From TrEMBL:
Sequence segments annotated as region (Disordered): 1-25
Modified residues (N6-(pyridoxal phosphate)lysine): 753
Catalysed reactions listed for this entry: N(6)-[(R)-lipoyl]-L-lysyl-[glycine-cleavage complex H protein] + glycine + H(+) = N(6)-[(R)-S(8)-aminomethyldihydrolipoyl]-L-lysyl-[glycine-cleavage complex H protein] + CO2
Subunit structure, interactors included: The glycine cleavage system is composed of four proteins: P, T, L and H.
Any one of the GO BP annotations: glycine decarboxylation via glycine cleavage system
Cofactors that this protein relies on: pyridoxal 5'-phosphate
UniProt KW keywords: Mitochondrion, Oxidoreductase, Pyridoxal phosphate, Transit peptide
One Pfam assignment: GcvP2_C
Entry GO CC: glycine cleavage complex; mitochondrion
Gene3D superfamilies per record: Aspartate Aminotransferase, domain 1, Type I PLP-dependent aspartate aminotransferase-like (Major domain)
UniProt key word Transmembrane helix: no
Compartments reported by the entry: Mitochondrion
Protein name: Glycine cleavage system P protein
Length: 1004
């Protein structure tokens, strides 16, 4: 968020002596309160003797020193340094020292330091609301899901046979959304409420698809952070936004309108009957969007009864902490006819090979990894772990418990409105509200009243000069309500005769006009669990169905499934981290701000750039933010017409999808053997008058560091463009090279890959961007919490997240990761990632064709195995191998990308040699099985690869008709017996049937 001075970056040619002195000066800036060991005055031997013994480097890196020696022998190098020299081009190597801690604090010392920083946060009593509310995370969910590696270390459920647990939980979530909104279908989460609104607007624009209907109306009673975000999205989507009072707008006469959006309850707390608005919109061929509070929907009339077409919102208050803005699970729900245009992941039902009902990812052809720039959205990582938490929160409370909870919250707000009325305070929305009471405090200034109450540890919201709101949630007590009334009286609010609200009855019931009628959430799962024992066992049952890092390595290429350490995750559950409102005053958030500024400096050092924004909430969101920054920079130079973006064919699907969202014209370039420099230069010259950007991944997704990357970047600059580096493969760069070294101008970082935030089964993530100094004035802004670095708001890219720092609640994870590893340890992560990949590649060579790498035959941190020849000879395809790996106890690598008919393997630095060998042995044994097909011992149709995976009930059953034994099917390797067998929960899933017969929610 804040621009940081360019002198934080080390000059590439600085001598080691200079770097050491600079390191000592800067380290204290990057980590407040830390003292360098050299300043303690001890001898080295005494320092070593008294240093903490729980240092993190040896706990994080998999191979032992003895293993490294043996692995280098297999690779054919004398040392790991020789391997790095053969892997990364000399001209882009870093020779400075990362400006990070020294890594000597140890895990306990690092936790002590972050505790001291975060203790500077002041936990006030929050009544701010605006989509962020206090909530109680049930301990059984906190311990058994949020803090459970069986849940948080899983990947997106692309392999349904080993993902049935979280898939079941997610279809519970989709059902919950549908039941509360009254809509037919829902997705399994989006990033936040504001971006969900922007996605809905874009979906409607695509649905209408008419230049004559390019206007979109947003009620001025939508949360301001959502409006702010939607302004940015509309600009490059060709949508004309109209922001106004829905009550006085004549929608019937607005013939150019494609859609409109309202808030329910609105940002001032009112419940509004939108039925007439819905009719007017539909009569004019426009679509109706509503951003709704799911807790209100427990007792309030559902959006479907107002004629709403699309519903969005956030489930944060269903058991997920505020976390200073995120992460939490947003959602979108709509009708079945719109489902193929809906963004985000969809969970559907199908059957497996044996006819059993199973769950799977549905309609993936909508998504960016398949449709590229034609995708419905760039959404990739969403908020799966948080969606699962909210789903479990609903299950644990049950439908009747949710009703009691919602009525209690409403009752508290009713009681407050009544007592405020008795105190002479004017309540402006007493006719119909849910949890938010609005008060006219004139002639007092709302801002001055807010500031006075902040001094008493109470946070309210000033809507305008005279209007205050107080929002209640499940954490508030009756005593809190009375304390608030007394504080308002002490601030000089009210004091006259009782107002109309004094006569309000405290019933917990909404006015009949807005009350929900009829039953909902009647599915058994939402009404059958009441005890903690039952809840614990249900979550454990689901957990056992999924293969996570607590079972075995997950070698997905370009996904970096490394260790997510307990020490890094521990602070996430602390109250000073979890219970902070994103719009709390600066005076209360000093700890968070110090932590975030420190993390920004760490990332700036790692990238070799000058400034950073932590606002993007995923890698795809970071891509979008980075391209927005480039567009704003070019516009500031009078070059706004530049809109051509060059993208290699091997790029992640999010790249073209993000470019399309920024209204860029995409020009593809083939890089099947690396980008041809002359061809690339010619392409730059061809579009020199309109060239805006190159999006490039380094090292390449084809698994090697290109030698000519600096010349490629220079060609872009010579022709007026900027270079965006996709940071997906940053784990191979740390401390060895950097985006700054190669000539890039902006990059995003996947903190849920490189910096150890868990994937959570598909989120949460963080995708901050780092930029060179000339782009710093254009970093994302926020309408409610401006960046401390200042700058002109008009020059900034605008908001890409509803919260100022995005998913700030998980920023402690990368901070701990960097602090515990230190500058040497962080660099070693890249070295060991490259070591492990090249070791596995060396072991696989001779068994499988390996996709070409660099001139030294070295890959980066991943490598690609080619199955084209095996496919041609035997009919065995990469999917067959992927499914067969499940029988060996492993998750499949990345399949069929970036090269068709391939598997891309990324082991990460956290895996020990024994695990690497087990995986390699599994692949070699599978190759021997393929050889039996080649030799005719097994037919191309009847073999363990085609029938994989094999499930427990089938293997233990009485009917076994396959031409191989049960042992060959289920226990093909010795470790499947010695270490315990992981059983896939279903046989191979029928994907085609699941898309033909869509079923996206549970039956009633």
């Amino acid at each position: 968020m804040r621009a940081v001075a360019a002198n934080m970056a080390q000059a590439a040619g600085q001598t080691r002596a200079q770097a050491s002195k600079a390191q000592q000066r800067r380290l204290q800036l990057a980590t407040p309160g830390m003292q360098l060991s050299a300043s303690r005055g001890f001898s080295t031997s005494v320092q070593d003797l008294l240093s903490p013994t729980d240092t993190f480097r040896e706990r994080h890196l998999g191979p032992s020193p003895a293993d490294v020696v043996k692995m280098c022998e297999v690779i054919g190098v004398k040392s790991i340094d020789e391997l790095i020299d053969q892997t990364i081009p000399a001209q882009v190597r870093r020779h400075d020292t990362l400006v990070l801690p020294d890594g000597k604090l140890g895990e306990a010392g690092s936790l002590k330091m972050i505790k001291e920083i975060l203790s500077k946060n002041i936990q006030a009593k929050n009544f701010i609301g605006m989509g962020y509310h206090g909530t109680h995370t049930p301990g059984v969910i906190l311990r058994n899901m949020l803090e459970n590696p069986g849940w948080y270390t899983t990947y997106s459920p692309y392999q349904p046979e080993i993902s049935q647990g979280r898939l079941e939980s997610l279809i519970n979530f989709q059902t919950l959304v549908c039941e509360l909104t009254g809509m037919e279908v829902a997705n399994s989460s989006l990033l936040d409420e504001g971006s969900a609104g922007a996605e809905a607007m874009a979906m409607i624009a695509r649905t209408v698809n008419s230049k004559s209907k390019n206007q979109f109306f947003i009620s001025d009673q939508v949360h301001p952070q959502s409006i702010d975000l939607m302004k940015v999205r509309a600009k490059y989507f060709g949508i004309e936004l109209i922001i106004g009072d829905h009550a006085t707008t004549d929608f019937a006469s607005m013939t150019k309108l494609c859609g409109a959006m309202v808030q329910y309850p609105d940002t001032s707390g009112r419940l509004v009957d939108y039925s007439a608005m819905g009719e007017a919109l539909h009569g004019n061929g426009a679509h109706f969007v509503m951003s709704a509070d799911p807790l209100a929907l427990v007792v309030a009339k559902p959006p479907s009864e107002f004629g709403v077409d699309v519903v969005v919102g956030s489930f944060q208050r269903f058991g997920v902490p505020m976390w200073f803005g995120g992460p939490s699970a947003a959602f979108m729900a709509c009708s079945k006819k719109q489902v193929r245009r809906m963004p985000g992941r969809l969970i559907g039902e199908s059957i497996d090979r044996l006819g059993n009902p199973v769950y799977r990812l549905a309609l993936q052809t909508r998504e960016q990894h398949i449709r590229l720039d034609k995708a419905t959205s760039n959404v990739c990582t969403a908020q799966v772990l948080l969606a699962n938490m909210s789903s479990m929160y609903a299950i644990y409370n049950r439908s009747d418990g949710l009703k009691r909870l919602a009525k209690r919250v409403h009752g508290l707000s009713q009681l407050f409105a009544q007592q405020a009325g008795k105190a002479g305070i004017t309540v402006t929305n007493s006719e119909a509200f849910f949890d938010t009471v609005a008060m006219d405090v004139s002639p007092k200034s709302a801002k001055s009243v807010v500031e006075m109450l902040q001094g008493k540890g109470i946070n309210l919201r000033a809507v305008n000069d005279t209007l205050l709101t107080a929002s209640f949630d499940e954490t508030h007590l009756e005593a809190d309500m009375h304390a608030l009334v007394e504080a308002l009286k002490a601030a000089g609010v009210g004091g006259g005769s009782p107002t109309a609200a004094a006569n309000l009855a405290v019933t917990g019931e909404l006015p009949a006009q807005f009350a929900r009628t009829g039953e909902f959430l009647q599915q058994k799962i939402f009404n059958s669990i009441h005890s903690e024992t039952e809840m614990m066992r249900y979550m454990h049952t689901l957990q056992l169905k999924d293969l996570a890092l607590d079972v075995s390595m997950i070698s997905l290429g370009s996904c970096t499934m490394k260790l997510n350490s307990v020490s890094s995750l521990t602070p996430c559950s602390w109250p000073e981290v979890a219970n902070m409102h994103p719009f709390a005053p600066e005076s209360q958030t000093a700890g968070y701000r110090e932590l975030l500024e420190s993390l920004e400096k760490y990332l700036i050092s790692c990238t070799g750039f000058d400034a950073c924004s932590l606002q993007p909430t995923s890698g795809a969101s970071g891509e979008y933010a980075g391209l927005l920054v480039i567009r704003k920079y070019l516009e500031s130079k009078g070059q706004g017409h530049r809109n051509v973006c060059i993208i290699p064919r091997s790029a992640h699907g999010t790249n073209p999808a993000s470019a399309a969202m920024c209204d860029m014209e995409i020009k593809w370039i083939d890089d099947s053997t690396g980008m041809d420099l002359e061809e690339f230069k010619a392409l730059c010259v061809e579009y020199k008058d309109r060239l805006a950007a190159l999006m490039v991944t380094y090292p390449s997704t084809r698994a090697f560091f290109e030698d000519n990357i600096q010349e490629i970047c220079a060609a872009v600059h010579e022709n007026g463009g900027q270079v965006y580096m996709d940071g997906a493969n940053m784990n191979a760069q740390l401390g060895l090279t950097s985006p700054g070294m190669i000539g890039a101008d902006v990059c995003h970082l996947n903190l849920h890959k490189t910096f150890s935030i868990p994937h959570g089964g598909g989120g949460p993530g963080m995708g901050p961007i780092c930029v060179r100094g000339h782009l710093a004035p254009h970093l994302p802004n926020h309408c409610l919490v401006p960046p401390s670095s200042g700058g002109k708001a008009a020059e900034r890219a605008g908001a890409v997240s509803a919260a100022p720092w995005g998913s700030a609640g998980i920023a402690c994870i990368p901070w701990m990761y960097c602090t515990m590893l230190g500058n040497v340890g962080i660099t070693d992560t890249a070295k060991y990632a490259i070591l492990n990949a090249n070791y596995m590649k060396a072991r696989m060579t001779g068994h499988y064709p390996i996709h070409p790498t660099n001139k030294h035959n070295r890959c980066s941190h991943e490598f690609i195995m080619d199955f084209s020849e095996i496919r041609r000879k035997t009919g065995i395809v990469e999917e067959d191998v992927s499914k067969r790996l499940q029988d060996y106890g492993f998750h499949a690598p990345t399949m069929s990308w970036p090269v068709p008919h391939s598997l891309m393997i990324e082991p990460t630095e956290s895996e020990d040699r024994g695990e690497l060998d087990r995986f390699c042995d599994a692949m070699i044994m599978i190759r021997a099985e393929i050889k039996k097909i080649e030799d005719g011992e097994w037919s191309a149709e009847e073999n363990p690869l085609k029938y994989a995976p094999h499930i427990q009930t089938e293997v233990a059953g009485t009917n076994w008709t396959y031409p191989y034994t049960r042992e060959e099917a289920a226990f093909p390797a010795p470790w499947t017996l010695k270490r315990g067998k992981f059983w896939p929960q279903c046989a191979r899933v029928d994907n085609q049937l699941g898309d033909r017969k869509l079923k996206l929610r549970l039956d009633e």
